[in-house]
TrEMBL record:
InterPro entries given in the database record: Glutathione-S-Trfase_C-like, Glutathione-S-Trfase_C_sf, Glutathione_S-Trfase, Glutathione_S-Trfase_N, GST_Omega-like_C, GST_Omega/GSH, Thioredoxin-like_sf
PROSITE patterns recorded: GST_CTER
Marked site: Lowers pKa of active site Cys: Y249, Y292
SUPFAM superfamilies xrefs: GST C-terminal domain-like, Thioredoxin-like
Residue span of region Disordered: 1-44
Gene3D superfamilies listed in its UniProt record: 1.20.1050.10, Glutaredoxin
Designated name of the protein: Glutathione S-transferase family protein
Record Pfam families: GST_C_2, GST_N_2
GO cellular component, one term: cytoplasm
């Protein structure tokens, strides 16, 4: 069997199995803790503007979701933002983009410092996004699927006027099922292709990925967005994978049946979202390419970052809506 990029997350058959999220606290108005207090006995932190800091990486699709949702809902002034370098070293995500290499609010040089401050015995992979309590320096959550849903539901009192409802109550049963399929076959599916260490595991992930993309393409041929005429959390989750598809997943992760630009419906849909305020301006193709090609040394040992593809198509008319 080939050597694994993340050996602790590789199953016996060579399949990539993503680690569980270690920190699952939640910020909610239902917390019984006083203002300035820690989590209550159910792990619920008090809802306070200006207290929590979202740590993200421009390259990471999971973190990118949180950045987009935070902006769409108008939480920019309520939840501060810290950005890590796209290149991980042996200690993980670094704050080397900041002056002197330290996050100006948290005062730490590595995101792992916050992880180990919260759990000194933590040995797993340090991940983004992470929501950090600036009072204690502790990690509240790195549970990326729940984090963005909480931005829509638990943080509602701080939403900007006219903020979109990204998680409508009446659509949640259908949305939850759809987002689970997208996660399994697309969001995580590209990683299951890229990090597979057996031909069988890769083949299975590849087929599931493109079968799901075909289904989504058919769905989107009949509606502007995944749930109809309104952008929802489901669109955010699909977008962050699609926007990385040609620059990283097609070549680096061997997801090469077609490029996104060769799938007409999905390409138009992705351009539609890219050109929507709150989406395209959060995309950094340079960080994306440098992260994938220069961090996964088992896949790309030379760490050469490709110059392509041509990105000019992202701003061309999409013909939807």
């Amino acid at each position: 069997m080939a050597r694994a990029q993340f050996s602790a997350e590789t199953a016996g058959g060579g399949a990539f199995v993503r680690q569980p999220n270690r920190f699952t606290g939640r910020v909610t108005p239902h917390s019984t803790s006083p203002e300035g207090g820690g989590p209550d006995d159910q792990g619920r932190w008090p809802l306070e503007a200006g207290r929590y800091r979202l740590i993200w990486c421009r390259a990471c699709p999971w973190a990118h979701r949180a950045r987009i949702v935070r902006g769409l809902l108008g939480l920019d002034e309520v939840i501060s933002l810290g950005t890590v370098d796209p290149i991980r070293d042996e200690r993980g995500w670094r704050f080397s983009l900041d002056q002197d290499g330290f996050d100006p609010v948290l005062g730490i040089g590595y995101l792992s410092d916050a992880y180990l401050s919260t759990d000194p015995d933590y040995t797993g992979r340090v991940t983004v996004p992470a929501l950090i309590d600036t009072v204690t320096g502790r990690v509240v959550t790195n549970d990326y699927p729940q984090l963005t849903l909480d931005f829509s539901t638990e943080w509602r009192r701080f939403h900007k006027p006219g903020a979109p409802d990204l998680y409508p109550i009446e659509l949640r049963p259908e949305m939850d099922a759809l987002m689970a399929e997208i996660h399994r076959d697309v969001n995580n599916g590209v990683y299951r292709c890229g990090f597979a260490t057996s031909q069988e595991a890769y083949d299975e992930a590849y087929r599931a990925l493109f079968t799901r993309l075909d289904v989504l393409s058919e769905r989107l041929s009949e509606r502007r967005y995944l749930m109809g005429e309104q952008i929802t959390e489901a669109d955010v989750r699909l977008f962050t994978t699609l926007v990385r598809f040609d620059v990283a997943y097609h070549g680096h992760f061997k997801c090469n049946r077609q490029k996104l630009t060769e799938m007409p419906v999905l390409w138009a849909y992705a351009r539609d979202l890219f050109q929507t305020p709150g989406f395209g301006e959060t995309v950094d193709f340079d960080h994306i390419k440098r992260h994938y090609y220069a961090t996964h040394e088992m896949i790309n040992p030379t760490r050469i970052v490709p110059l392509g593809p041509d990105l000019s198509g992202w701003t061309t008319p999409h013909g939807r809506g």
